[in-house]
Amino acid sequence: MPEPVEFSKSVPQAGGAHAAGAPRTVDLRTGRRFDLIGLEWRGAPRARIELRTRRDGSHWTRWARVGASDDGPDGNAGAQRRSFSDPIWVGGADRVQIRAARPLPGLRLRLVNTTGSASPADRAKTRARVARRGAFGSVTAAAAPSAGIPPIIPRAAWGASRCRPRVTPAYGSVRVAYVHHTDSLNGYSRSRAASVVLGVCLFHRDARGWNDIGYDFLVDRYGRIFEGRAGGVDAPVIGAQAGGFNSESTGVSMIGDFTRSAPPRRAMDALARLLAWKLGLHGVPAIGTTQVTSAGGSATGYRAGTRVTVNRISGHRDVDLTSCPGAALYRRLPALRRAVASLEGPISELSAGPMSQRSRFGAGVPLSGRLVVPPGQSPAGALIELRRHDGFSDATIATTTTGDDGSWSALLPPLPGHSAVRAVFAGDGARPGVVSNTAYVRVVPRVNLTLSSPAIPAGGRVTASGAVAPGKSRATITAYLVRADGSRKRVRTRHVRVRRGAFRAAIALRAAGSYRLVARVGADSTSTAGRSAAVPVDVSPTP
Predict the structure, then answer these.
(1) CB contact at 8 A, 79 and 156
(2) Whole-angstrom Cα distance, residue 153 to residue 169?
(3) How far is it, in rounded angstroms, from Cα 341 to Cα 338?
(4) From the CA atom positions of the chain, what is the Rg in Å?
């Protein structure tokens, strides 16, 4: 695997027109070869931009329309707005020409080389390695299919070790699948597809600043399926591919530009197999509509909280301000829905709830739900696994079985911190397997506080000791004077360090009266903020 090279270049003021009315063309030599190019500029994304590229000694490519990228994380809107194009795969070039209908202030090229060809030294090193071991991407290991899953090329096979996620994944639910295209040139070779996926990941993570590649899956023109965003192909991983609508969806991108050219049949067949498995696994029928709720943001025209009715297999343009997945692919979606429905067959449904709850650290967590199986089958006696997402995988933490009506309940063991949990029915031949929505559990810390004495003289000190679980770095101890009318006045605050889950501090109380002391800890990635019960102490007048 070649080491990727990322670099950027500022572009002199591009856009506008010459006196004759033709758009101004900017010609730029990059100095190093690049395989993927994306554009970044200040201001609104609605700009008509075209570019073409060439390598020394070769011909210019045709002018390609550059689409503005309107996908991204939910609620993605910044005060200092930067607009981005979709990343375009060009497969090796060192010169680019750009023309635009209007000026593009602050235009910058974001360039990625993933084929080991950026410099003469890189090319020599790559030739030697290819001679010894073959070209990167010429052999790809697909995950072994099971339970109806089609072959999926794992992240390790396309170089994801060079594009590690910034944070662990988040999980939601799958109610709809959005179909995309990468807006890249269509003529890539079979061995280059892995490099395309790596280039898209690096652009999404490093240029766009996302946590990981935006799509959950990608499909190349040869009908091969690539695992996209990390977190588990069978899990409801929240991507960054349909801004405002990521948390209730899965996203699949076809590698190529399908504005005028339709995807090859083998690519469409692979897409149908993937969606039949993925939607069926989440209990979603291929045909029909569902309602999703917008999270708002700059990518979509729907305000936060708006309920939108969409097909369960939709195009990206159905919810965001974009022409993706291209007109030629978008016209294929009705036929795709029918193909997925024929492959999907009967499906089960599985719920888990409550969707969100708080649990005291160290306490068991109750969950319940219901399994619905296809007509003619009984839901009784099905084994339900409760799995907790942990980093980039999940682990079974409890099991239970369904009753005669398919209902189930379980008491999860105490959780170590904030957790995302789902119920899984693996299937048993007669009854199709299915996974539930994600249930979120927010852990409330236990904070205990004791005092060295229930009474002290005015001007004396009382020692406050306590414990926190799960552990924190700091705690705050506050002393309140209780007035005659029962109201409280804060009179003393101490910030103390917590070591190995324990803290200790001396609190000086000068005036006589009745006091209450409370210990608090702040929220972090493992638990919410928490506080102890109020502990009384009486301060007597000095004799």
Answers:
(1) no
(2) 19
(3) 5
(4) 29
Which amino acid would we find at residue 42?
R
Count, residues in the chain: 543
- Residue 455 carries which side chain, given as an amino acid letter? A
Residue with tokens 């299919």: 145
Which domains, and CATH codes, for the chain?
Answer: 5-133 (2.60.120), 152-344 (3.40.80.10), 349-442 (2.60.40.10), 446-540 (2.60.40.10)
- Per the CB < 8 A criterion, the answer to whether 450 and 465 are in contact is yes
Residues in Cβ contact with 14 at an 8 Å cutoff, skipping those fewer than 6 apart: 24, 26, 98, 99, 100, 103, 104, 107
As given in the structure block, the two tokens for residue 536 are 């009384």
Q: Could you tell me the two tokens for 506? A: 């001396």
- 321: its two tokens: 């301000």
Calculated CA dihedral for residues 126, 130, 133, 135, nearest 10 degrees = 100
**pLDDT (tens place) for every residue of the chain, 543 residues total:** 889 999 999 988 666 666 555 677 899 999 999 999 999 988 766 677 888 999 877 889 888 888 776 667 776 654 347 888 888 898 889 999 999 888 888 899 999 999 999 999 999 999 998 888 888 877 666 655 556 789 999 999 999 999 999 999 999 999 999 999 987 777 788 888 999 999 999 999 999 999 999 999 999 999 999 999 999 999 999 999 888 999 999 999 999 889 888 899 999 999 999 999 999 999 999 999 999 999 988 788 889 999 999 999 999 999 988 888 989 999 999 999 999 999 998 999 999 999 999 999 999 999 999 999 999 999 999 999 999 998 888 899 999 999 999 999 999 999 999 999 999 999 987 899 999 999 999 999 999 999 999 999 999 999 999 999 998 999 999 999 999 998 999 999 999 999 999 999 999 999 999 999 999 999 998 999 999 999 999 999 977
Residue 406 C-beta-side C-alpha neighbours within 13 Å: 17
Give Cα 380 distance to the centre of its chain: 35
Alpha-carbon distance 414 to 532, whole Å?
20
> Could you tell me if 283 and 349 are in contact, meaning their C-beta atoms sit under 8 angstroms apart?
yes
Q: What's the CA gap between 89 and 111, in Å, rounded?
A: 10
At 213 the three-state DSSP class reads: coil
Compute how many other C-beta atoms are within 10 angstroms of the C-beta atom of residue 286: 23
Is residue 64 within 8 A of residue 86, CB to CB? The reply is no
Phi first, then psi: what are they for 278, rounded to 5°? -65, -45
Q: Tell me the three state secondary structure of residue 361.
A: coil
Q: Is the peptide bond before 454 cis (omega within 30 degrees of 0)?
A: no
Other beta carbons within 10 Å of 541:
9
Three-state DSSP at 129 gives helix
* CA atoms of 372 and 346, how far apart (whole Å): 11
Contact 97, 26 (CB under 8 A): yes
- Whether residue 325 is preceded by a cis peptide bond, meaning omega within 30 degrees of 0, is yes
DSSP reduced 3-state for 42: strand
> How would you class 24 by CB atoms within 10 Å of its CB: exposed for 0-12, middle for 13-18, buried for 19 or more?
middle
